[in-house]
TrEMBL record:
HAT C-terminal dimerisation domain segment(s): 264-342
A molecular function (GO) term: protein dimerization activity
Pfam family, one: Dimer_Tnp_hAT
Species in which this protein is naturally found: Daphnia sinensis
Stored SUPFAM superfamilies: Ribonuclease H-like
Top-rank taxon, per record: Eukaryota
Family matches, as InterPro entries: HATC_C_dom, RNaseH-like_sf
Protein name: HAT C-terminal dimerisation domain-containing protein
Length: 353
């Protein structure tokens, strides 16, 4: 035997995990399982049937793995937040990238290999540098001017500005004009105007009921006065839609309301540490929809956009578990209903079924 028999207390309940390239944070999970089972691993490698003491995890190697775990852990925190499906996630993108960029800052040691710098430290520094460059390519920022350091993609910045928890973040809009400019860009991209009177807009968009012409006997023909009184009067909004919807007063009033909403919103104080953990963004805008009527309409459209494809990938995974080889004859309608039930089962109380 190359090592002493381990104590039962040294055996952990978790098993070794394997790296899965298609699963987020699987490398971190694998490294944690190695450190957690290092005593068991060394004992196993030291047994007679293996005779592989040269594969023992040495202290320097364990320290390097621990340093790598510490570096990767913030990535897990941010990806876990952004892949959620029960809360808005688009506002997390800018602050998450900023947080990860801080983790990629080089240590005090120079990025050169020397006798004072171990190979493990040098390798970690190179990894940080490469990850930082990858983040900069994926989420580019302005390099000069007043917007230096801010994301080029204004949608990310606009979404962050609709999250009151990030009011102190540098990506948060600080004045009304740039806020409106971001909203206009978002409005143009989705082809929706937030400056049309909502009541008038709904009446214009709703088509009138179809009129069915029936042949009636001559004996049942009514007089013109009776026909006019019994027929349905055309909708005023539809009759004059071409001229009413373009009245400048409606747009001016909506824009003025939006400016007032943004001014009040920007005047809010920064949330406290307690508020950061308690505020639920969707509920916050729902409660304040009467305080910021126009701004809340924009928030509803914007923050409903998910930041990652993880929620939709879960739906595909659920579908794969339902449509198996033994259930390949399920119709598409039934598959849709099964997936819907599986996705929303968490909201159903079993006692009510």
């Amino acid at each position: 035997m190359y090592c002493n028999r381990i104590n039962p207390s040294d055996i952990v309940s978790t098993s070794l995990k394997k790296l899965v390239p298609t699963r987020w944070n699987s490398c971190l999970t694998m490294l944690k399982s190695i450190i957690g089972n290092k005593i068991v691993i060394n004992d196993l490698l030291g047994q007679d049937q293996f005779e592989s003491p040269h594969l023992f995890l040495r202290k320097q190697e364990c320290d390097a793995i621990v340093n790598l775990i510490n570096f990767l852990h913030p990535f897990k925190i941010q990806t876990d937040l952004m892949q959620g499906e029960l809360y808005p996630t688009l506002s997390f993108v800018c602050p998450a990238v900023q947080q990860l960029m801080l983790c990629c800052q080089p240590d005090n040691a120079p990025l050169v290999s020397s006798f004072q710098t171990t190979h493990q430290d040098y390798g970690l520094s190179i990894l940080k540098s490469n990850v930082k460059k990858a983040l900069q390519r994926r989420f580019p920022v302005h390099q000069s001017g007043n917007s230096k350091g801010l994301p080029i993609n204004e949608f990310y910045r606009l979404a962050t500005s609709f999250d009151i928890r990030f009011k102190s973040n540098k990506a948060f809009y600080t004045n009304v004009d740039e806020f409106i400019e971001g909203i206009n860009e978002f409005s143009n991209s989705i082809g929706t105007s937030f400056f049309v009177d909502e009541r008038l807009d709904e009446s214009v968009l709703v088509d009138p009921p179809e009129t069915v012409t029936l042949e009636v006997p001559s004996s049942t023909i009514v007089t013109p006065s009776e026909s006019e009184s019994s027929s349905k009067k055309p909708k005023f909004s539809r009759a004059f839609a071409g001229v009413v919807t373009t009245l400048p007063s409606l747009k001016t009033n909506s824009e003025k309301q939006l400016r007032d909403d943004i001014a009040k919103y920007l005047a809010l104080p920064n949330p406290s540490i307690k508020d950061l953990d308690e505020i639920q963004l969707g509920n916050w805008w729902f409660r304040n929809r009467d305080v910021y009527p126009v701004l809340a309409k924009v928030a509803k459209r914007l923050i409903s956009i998910v930041a990652t494809s993880a929620p939709s990938e879960r739906v595909f995974s659920t579908g794969g578990n339902i449509v198996t080889q033994k259930r390949s004859r399920l119709t598409s309608t039934n598959v849709d209903m099964y997936i819907f039930l599986a996705a929303n089962s968490r909201f159903v109380n079993p006692t009510d079924m």
